């Protein structure tokens, strides 16, 4: 064999480093925090007995009450305010010169110190509260720092080297995320069930279909239901979060005239892939289960929009109370998230608050593994996830909130 015939060596990709996996876990933590914000009022109300008012009766507590009242005027957030008062009181009692409105490199430590006091182990002198208390506390403190610095970014935490000023929200800092990831692992080892979002399974999607397309609905309800359900089924099939599916545009779709077997969808970027590389899906018709058939969903949507709606811009549009489809008003992630909560409540789900923006992605992953019998690498490729992201993908396959009701069948041999 000549030198020309020698094949080039295949360059193997190195396994993700601990640092890369840790970074991905922090990103997932931030995504979970965003997902839970939709139901944070309910979450906080469940833990208010851990922040009793009668323990806020000294000079530090009175100062904290004065500060929160002056900075937050939203009277509907009583639960948030009580946690914030505890946070300020905790630090003032430790250091009378502590400034509640100071935001610098020490602020993330202030946040984790308070959460440690509430959720750290009892044998070490802490209160031993559950991980969900930490989640509630973080959400309340997010509100505090949003209110005292209303012009800052709500998604970042970074140092402006020019002004030497920290920008964004300290509750979104890497230090706080690492702390929350570690706390969740510690609580899980002690047997505590995680508060992560619950997956929407195939039967849940069937129920949502029947609920959104109920023939007894009014005209405007039917029209809004078609749009909601199309968004639901696409998010579930494509493994997208609500905030991702809502960004789909007419331009992302390639539908060949007369082709009824599949539809191609392409996105320029994903939230976890900002390199500009194209990711695409080919969604096939599903005659064996028409409820989750993407082609049928598109036909419904096309029939609703008709020739009046221009086929450009955002795909999912607002429907007025009179049933008019408003192309100038695209559906937003917050509106669709609240609609999901209402739909689940309308179906009688007592656990509706456990479902969030990740529930479609989690359920879609489980569907492709358990029902479609796909492999983990197939699901990773379908979702467009990197090798590092795939390491943490197990969180989507399994959640402590899912599937325990079926455990009695797990060892069935017939």
From TrEMBL:
The keyword Chaperone does not apply. The keyword Disulfide bond does not apply. Keywords: DNA recombination. One of its GO terms (biological process) is DNA recombination. Residues 1-20 are annotated as: Disordered. GO terms for molecular function: DNA binding. This is Tyr recombinase domain-containing protein.
């Amino acid at each position: 064999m000549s030198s020309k015939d020698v094949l080039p060596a295949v360059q193997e990709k190195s396994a993700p480093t601990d640092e890369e996996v840790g970074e991905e876990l922090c990103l997932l933590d931030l995504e979970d925090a965003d997902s839970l914000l939709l139901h944070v009022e309910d979450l906080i109300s469940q833990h208010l007995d851990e922040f009793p008012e009668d323990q806020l009766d000294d000079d530090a507590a009175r100062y904290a009450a004065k500060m929160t009242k002056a900075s937050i005027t939203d009277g509907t957030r009583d639960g948030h305010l009580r946690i914030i008062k505890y946070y300020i009181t905790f630090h003032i009692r430790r250091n009378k010169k502590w400034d509640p409105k100071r935001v610098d490199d020490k602020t993330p430590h202030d946040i984790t110190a308070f959460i440690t006091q509430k959720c750290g182990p009892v044998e070490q002198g802490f209160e031993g509260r559950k991980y969900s208390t930490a989640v509630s506390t973080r959400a309340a403190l997010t509100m505090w720092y949003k209110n005292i610095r209303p012009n800052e970014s709500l998604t970042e935490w970074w140092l402006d080297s020019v002004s030497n000023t920290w920008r964004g929200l300290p509750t979104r800092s890497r230090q706080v995320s690492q702390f929350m990831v570690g706390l969740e692992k510690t609580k899980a080892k002690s047997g505590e069930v995680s508060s992560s979002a619950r997956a929407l399974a195939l039967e849940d999607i069937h129920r949502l279909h029947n609920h959104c397309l109920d023939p007894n609905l009014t005209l405007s309800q039917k029209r809004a239901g078609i749009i909601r359900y199309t968004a639901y089924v696409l998010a579930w099939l494509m493994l997208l979060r609500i905030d991702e599916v809502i960004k789909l545009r007419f331009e992302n779709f390639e539908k060949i005239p007369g082709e009824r077997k599949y539809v191609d969808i392409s996105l320029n970027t994903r939230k976890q892939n900002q390199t500009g590389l194209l990711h695409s899906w080919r969604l096939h018709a599903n005659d064996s289960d028409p409820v989750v058939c993407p082609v049928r969903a598109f036909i419904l949507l096309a029939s609703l929009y008709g020739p009046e709606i221009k086929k450009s811009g955002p795909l999912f549009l607002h429907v007025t109370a009179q049933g008019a489809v408003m192309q100038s008003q695209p559906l937003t992630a917050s509106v669709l998230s609240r609609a999901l909560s209402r739909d689940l409540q309308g179906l009688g789900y007592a656990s509706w608050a456990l479902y969030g923006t990740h529930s479609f992605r989690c359920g879609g992953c489980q569907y492709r593994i358990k029902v479609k019998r796909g492999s983990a690498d197939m699901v990773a490729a379908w979702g467009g996830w990197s090798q590092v992201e795939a390491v943490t993908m197990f969180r989507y396959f399994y959640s402590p909130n899912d599937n325990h009701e079926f455990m009695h069948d797990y060892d069935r041999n017939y």
